[in-house]
C-alpha cells in the first residue's frame, strides 16, 4: 500500500512534506491535457486532475492512495497556460500587470473505485509592472514552466500585491482543502497521520 503523488512538481512534493506526509512515491503521468473549447477554468482543472489520477490508478495497487492535481491561471475567464516562448511570457505578464486574476487548482484523490475531485480558487492581484520589470523577470527564466508565466514561491512574489484565498493553492496544492479531502480516505495529517497509516 502506497501514497502516490501523480505529479513531477517539486513544489507539490514540498507541500506534502510540509503537512507531515513524507512516505510517498512520485509517479508523474502523461495524461491527455487537451481541453474542450470554452471550458470553465474550475471544470478544466477538475477534468485534468481526474485524468491524471485515473492514469496513475491504472498502474497502482488496489489499496494505493493517489493524489493528482492541476493548476491554471485565468484572466477574465480565459485560461493562461505555460508560455511557449519569451514573447508569450511577456504578453501574459503584460496582461496580468495591475489586474486581478484567478488561480484554480483541481485536486483528485483516488483509491480503487473511490474517487474524489474538488477545486480551489485564489484571487491574485499584481501591482502595475513596467516593461523593464517584465523583461527582467522573463530573463530570469522563472516564468517559462509556470502557468500564467509566474511562480509565487520565487521571484514572482515581487509581482503579487495581494492574495485573497489559499496561498498554497497558487503554489499548486491547496493544503486546507487537501487536508479535508484526505480525512475522507482515513488520513488525518493534523492528527499526525502519515502515508504509512492510511487504512
Describe the structure.
By secondary structure, the chain is α/β, with parallel strands linked by helices. Helices cover 30% and strands 25% of the residues. The radius of gyration is 17 Å and the shape is globular. The chain starts with a strand and ends in a 16-residue tail after the last helix. The relative contact order is 0.18.
Radius of gyration: 17 Å
How does the major sheet shape up?
A: 7 strands, mixed
What is the beta-strand fraction? 25-35%
β-strand number: 7
User: SS-based structural class?
Assistant: alpha/beta
Q: Based on CA inertia axes, which overall geometry fits? A: globular
Which parts are unreliable, with pLDDT below 50 for 5 consecutive residues or more?
Answer: 195-199
Percent helix: 25-40%
* Secondary-structure element order, N to C: EHEHEEHEEHEHH
Write the layout of secondary structure elements.
Elements: E1 3-5, H1 10-18, E2 24-26, H2 41-57, E3 65-75, E4 78-80, H3 86-96, E5 100-111, E6 114-126, H4 131-139, E7 160-164, H5 167-171, H6 175-183
Parallel strand pairs: 1-2, 1-3
Antiparallel strand pairs: 3-4, 3-5, 5-6, 6-7
Task: Summarize it.
This protein is an alpha/beta fold.
What key phrases describe this protein's structure?
single chain, 199 residues, alpha/beta, 7-stranded mixed β-sheet, 6 helices
Amino acid at each position: 500500500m502506497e501514497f502516490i503523488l501523480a505529479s513531477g512538481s517539486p513544489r507539490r512534493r514540498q507541500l506534502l512534506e510540509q503537512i507531515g506526509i513524507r512516505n510517498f512515491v512520485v509517479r508523474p503521468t502523461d495524461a491527455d491535457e487537451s481541453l474542450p473549447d470554452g471550458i470553465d477554468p474550475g471544470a478544466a482543472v477538475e477534468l485534468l486532475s481526474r485524468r491524471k489520477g485515473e492514469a496513475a490508478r491504472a498502474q497502482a495497487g488496489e489499496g494505493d492512495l493517489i493524489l493528482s492535481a492541476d493548476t491554471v491561471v485565468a484572466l477574465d475567464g480565459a485560461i493562461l497556460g505555460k508560455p511557449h516562448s519569451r514573447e508569450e511570457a511577456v504578453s501574459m505578464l503584460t496582461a496580468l500587470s495591475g489586474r486581478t486574476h484567478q488561480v484554480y487548482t483541481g485536486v483528485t484523490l483516488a483509491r480503487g473505485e473511490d474517487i474524489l475531485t474538488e477545486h480551489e480558487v485564489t484571487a491574485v492581484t499584481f501591482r502595475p509592472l513596467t516593461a523593464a520589470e517584465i523583461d527582467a523577470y522573463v530573463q530570469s527564466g522563472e516564468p517559462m514552466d509556470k502557468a500564467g508565466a509566474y511562480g509565487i514561491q520565487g521571484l514572482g512574489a515581487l509581482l503579487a500585491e495581494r492574495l485573497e484565498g489559499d496561498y498554497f493553492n497558487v503554489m499548486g496544492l491547496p493544503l486546507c482543502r487537501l487536508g479535508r479531502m484526505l480525512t475522507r480516505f482515513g488520513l488525518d495529517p493534523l492528527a499526525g497521520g502519515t502515508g504509512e497509516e492510511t487504512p
